[in-house]
């Protein structure tokens, strides 16, 4: 038997602070413990000492000095490394958090501060009824952006009162997983695919969801645009270095909020981090489509992404159309119920699947790789001289373009054969001036070879542009995505091709249009309000027949077709280089960009990547590609873990398929993004 005095020598006192709301009860408790006592035993001892009868199930121990949760309740204090000098904090795992959504609305809800951010975002998306939560993450605004905002707030005379949507009654508040919101896994549409309104019968199915019809309307509808004054007060990146600041604050998906210094009631941004929007379906995704539309809209208004004047007017016309429909009573008529028979819907879906479009062409597609052959003009920029523009006979086959002096000589050797795999394809179009150009940046040993192709008309441009885009990804025109890509390019060109109409300009609605709300500040300064209104209404003629959801989807498509779409910028220093560069991370490639000129220097495709890792001691990312190409760089504008996670995240998202349920392989995500730190 061990005497009590001997036992006492092995035990020690542990100080635990309890986070509770009872003012009359002390908050600090000294527990006498031994190293072999497990964490669950510590919590039991503590609750017995507190003597407050309440539900402690959401409480856990937080180790202040080590910045970590002690969640493995079967581990002993010795195994965790907890000794007498440890300061433990007994607190709730779910806490209030303010989230600024892409539509600039703020919601307040309870979030798990002990789960990994990847899981916390998944729970948040269930509450907000956003499918495919893996595409989103949480962003902490950089100090520079916040300083600018504070400065603006000081200058404004009236205090800014923010309208916060409180969702604190959500199921996650009680520590349960989020409710499915409005999303139904049956074939019954949950939203009207035309207007995006929830079918009112479905509200009653999910009455445990905090999303009432009114809240859903706030998240699924675009609301009146902000004033030009508000726009001017928001942070607008001017340079590539400024754009790099926007991406510096992504939280680590493999660690919890508390571990990353986030406190209760802090504000974070919920944003689409990965620009691969999988399986967008108007029947289920009204909130998701609206939030993607809003993120795209703000990116264009704040010039986070560059576009031409012609494109800006298209975006303005679509925004005007969306805001007009959102404000009209028809769009928000919740009483209209579209009852769809589930069996009938399932049968029609099966019919489409079985038919699979033009079955007669399937064999032909497998055996024959299509090719394009036509007269185009080749433009090569030359230093210290004018551009040389010459007509040639071009042949596009597989993933390469060959050109010949004329059609007759096409049987012989080409003048040059350009392999487009891994190249950058940039549209060079002005519909009004009948200019249809394709800019190709082809990787060569010492950088990028710049070549322009000039087409004669829209149809020729759409076919060749689509072929170039697919070839850059290593796909041929036999790929099923070729014809949809041609159609998408043609529909975008059609939107740009408008003519002046007296009816449009004299439209009475243009009087209270406020065109400054639909374009970036650059164009507000360049044109008078009446001029802008007239030009937006001209462009609006081509989109005026669209439904609300169709207009948002068309806006998203137009945004996706911009050359800079999906690029997240970081300032890096490449191994062996003496100057800083910008690294652009996209869904399928990395681009090294000259920080001074903004010109791409080299492109590396993820499809050619063999492995990537991080040397955590010197914070250096190293990547190996095919053909013995390897690069290494340190990140200067953010933590290198952010870039590492971006690369792994995009590779993880490329593994998704429609056959899968929406259950995600969370372990695979952490394997690809964690970096085994």
From TrEMBL:
Gene3D superfamilies: Phosphatidylinositol 3-kinase Catalytic Subunit, Chain A, domain 1, Pleckstrin-homology domain (PH domain)/Phosphotyrosine-binding domain (PTB). The keyword Nucleotide-binding does not apply. CDD domains: FERM_B-lobe, FERM_C_fermitin, FERM_F0_KIND1, PH_fermitin. One of its GO terms (cellular component) is cell projection. Residues 377-473 form the PH domain. SMART domains: B41, PH. Keywords: Cell adhesion, Cell junction, Cell projection. SUPFAM superfamilies: PH domain-like, Second domain of FERM. It comes from the Eukaryota. It is found in: Cell junction; Cell projection. GO terms for molecular function: integrin binding. GO terms for biological process: cell-matrix adhesion; integrin-mediated signaling pathway. Belongs to the kindlin family. This is Fermitin family member 1. It comes from Accipiter nisus.
